[in-house]
Amino acid sequence: MIIVKGQSQYEEKIKKHYRPSACGPVTVSVILQYWNVSYSVNQLYKQLGATRIGLFRFIMVRKLKKLLGSNWMVKPSNRIDEVINELDLGHPVAAKFDKYCTLRFFSKPMYAYHWVVITGYEIKDRKIFLYFHDNGAPGRKSKIRRISFEDQSSVLRFVLLSPKNPPL
Questions:
Q1: HSE, side-chain direction, 13 A CA sphere, residue 114
Q2: How many CB atoms lie under 10 A from the CB of residue 135?
Q3: Model pTM?
C-alpha cells in the first residue's frame, strides 16, 4: 500500500462552491503532494478546467501535461495491468468512476461520477481488489476504501501520473 495524505474535497480551505465537484483537483493534489509538488486544490480547480459537473479525463490529461511539462508522464489508461504496474513501482494512480461517459447509465457502481486516488491492490481468489482514498464527504475526512475491480471495471478509467525520473 502506498502511503499518501488523503484530503477531503469538503475541507474549509477549498472554496465552498468548488467542493461538490472538487474530487478531480483533490485527487491530483494528493498525487502531486506524494511527489513533493504543491498546488492548492483551488489553484488546480482552475488550472485543470474543473467545472460544476466535474473534470473530464481528457481535459485533465491535456492540462496536466501543460502544467507539469515534459519531465512528467501523464497518460490516460483503461488497462488494469498498467495500473498494477504503476502501483508496483510505488506510484499512486488517479481513477475516475464514470457511468455517464462510459455509457453505463443503468449500472449501479460505487460512485456514479467521482475521482479517487488508488494506493494499492490485492489479488485474492484470482480477483483484483483496489484500495483508494475516497476524498471525504461533508464533515468527514478521506478514508481508505476497497472495491472489486471486476465489479466496477465497466465505469473505471485511469490517469497515470508520475515524474519521468522519480526519486529513489
A1: 18
A2: 27
A3: 0.94
What would the pLDDT profile of 112-155 be if each residue is shown by its tens digit? 678 999 999 999 999 999 999 999 999 999 999 999 999 999 99
Contact 33, 5 (CB under 8 A): yes
CA–CA gap between residue 82 and residue 73 (Å, rounded): 13
Residue 26 CA, distance from chain mean position? 8
Residue 168: per-residue pLDDT: 64
Which of 147, 117, 115 is closest to 130 using CA atoms?
147
Tell me, what's the pLDDT at 107?
A: 79
Q: Could you write out the DSSP letters of every residue in 1-69? A: --------TT-TTS-TTTGGG-HHHHHHHHHHHHTT----HHHHHHHTT-BTTB--HHHHHHHHHHHH-
The whole-angstrom separation of Cα 90 and Cα 3 is 9
Q: What is the pLDDT of residue 105?
A: 74
Does residue 121 contact residue 87 with C-beta atoms inside 8 Å?
yes
Q: Which of 155, 150, 157, 151 is nearest to 118 (CA)?
A: 157
